Amino acid sequence: MKIMKKVQAGTLQSSDLMVFLEPAESLTVTIESTVLKQFGELIRAKVDEVLAKHGVEAGEVRITDRGALDYAIEARLETALMRAEG
Amino acid sequence: MVTSLLSTDDLKQAQALVAQSGLRFELPYDDLVGVFESGQLVAVGAREGRVLKMLVVAPAHQGGTLLDEVVTELVGRGYQEGIDSFFVFTSPALATSFEALNFNLLVASGKTALLEYGDGLRRYLTRYGRQVFPGNNGAVVANCNPFTMGHRYLVEEAASSVDHLYLFVVREERSLFPFPARLRMVQEGTADLKNVTVLDTSWYAVSSVTFPTYFLKSDDPAGAIQMELDLLLFATRIAPFFHIATRFIGSEPFSRTTAEYNRAMHRILPPLGIAVRELERRSAVGAAVSASRVREMLMRGELEGIAELVPVSTLDFLLSSEGIKIWDKGGSK
After folding, report:
1. Which tens digits make up the pLDDT trace of B304-314?
2. Are residues B74 and B175 in the same domain?
3. Which is nearest to B261 in space by CA: B246, B271, B251?
4. Is A13–B68 a contact, with Cβ atoms under 8 angstroms apart?
5. What is the phi/psi pair of residue B180, to 5°?
6. Is A54 helix (H, G, I), strand (E, B) or coil?
7. Where is the Citrate lyase ligase C-terminal domain (chain B) (predicted)?
């Protein structure tokens, strides 16, 4: 799928994350997290997995995380992707 | 649940809550939201452009998630309006509670800290990563509204005394000439100078965020604090990235705000390892060259005299149909 517009999903609350998507020529993913040192790699892996699953090849993906669990990351990112399509 | 505060009663409660916390209820704002509990306002927050302000949680309700909720709402709505980076001024003691919400501390000085949500500074610097040159570099930060012989002289002199000169053009759209037009005049007017790179300041120097009073021209004491933050941000985050060791400025005989900014530069930058070199303004026809003088002459239709004050490239732009449209707002005279 293609990211067609600028969208956002999620919240700034503890155990949640905010996802910001924007159309772009190439794919860039940036992650800020209060637990980046401990879980940065795992968050990144989860994000890459969801993006791959939806065939996202281009776009600017920015994530600010406050210690969300895997399924929250997946849910927030998928919601944002759905919003970015239409 | 976070809701918009719109009714007269909402506003009264918001004013009371903000005043209670020792902050000032400050107009204008683009968005004002809050959280009610049994009819009583317990949290409030506002957004003006990219700046979040008046963020207050009633003392009895602190420690929960109310601040998170208010900021989430303001950021979410702001993002829909096209804003992707948000700023908050707070006391250094409260900076950590914003850092817990993923805000990045940009700069702190005495009583004020400036934090950013959205990682914009890093993205801004990354964008210019390929234009970082080694050596002993210099910087000029200018609005160039429009680009004059005075700017040209300052840039030429500065460029001749450093390895590489960065010319930062103020991005903020508060000038007669819009940013793309100013940028173009600057690029064309300096194209022959090989060691000069033209960049934009984004929100990180002389912007409505770091330095609002530059544009408001008011005597607000907050202006002095923000001037300091603007310069600290330049000295600690921007200058090191571009290896900037000297900031060049033109002497300022006209604008009080700019003259004060120059004084602040002499005071704040050298202790942080950045030399400040102030060059005397060049004069033409008996008076110092300034962009405001050029604007006044444009308004009065004195086109002949302008040729002596601006480079050919700027004159060409001013007399182009695009240029005329910008300054001749009253129609042809």
Report:
1. 889 999 999 99
2. no
3. B251
4. yes
5. -60, -35
6. coil
7. 137-318
| Contact status of A11 with chain B (Cβ, < 8 Å) | yes
Which of B11, B3, B7, B49 lies closest to B30 in space, CA to CA?
B49
Asked if the structure places residue B13 within a domain, the reply is yes
CB contact under 8 A, B102 and A33: yes
How would residue B332 be classed by pLDDT, with cut points 50, 70 and 90? Answer: very low
What is the CATH architecture of A7-85? 2-Layer Sandwich (3.30)
CA-based nearest residue to A81, from A61, A64, A71, A70:
A61
Q: Model pTM greater than 0.90?
A: no
CB pairs under 8 A between A and B: 47
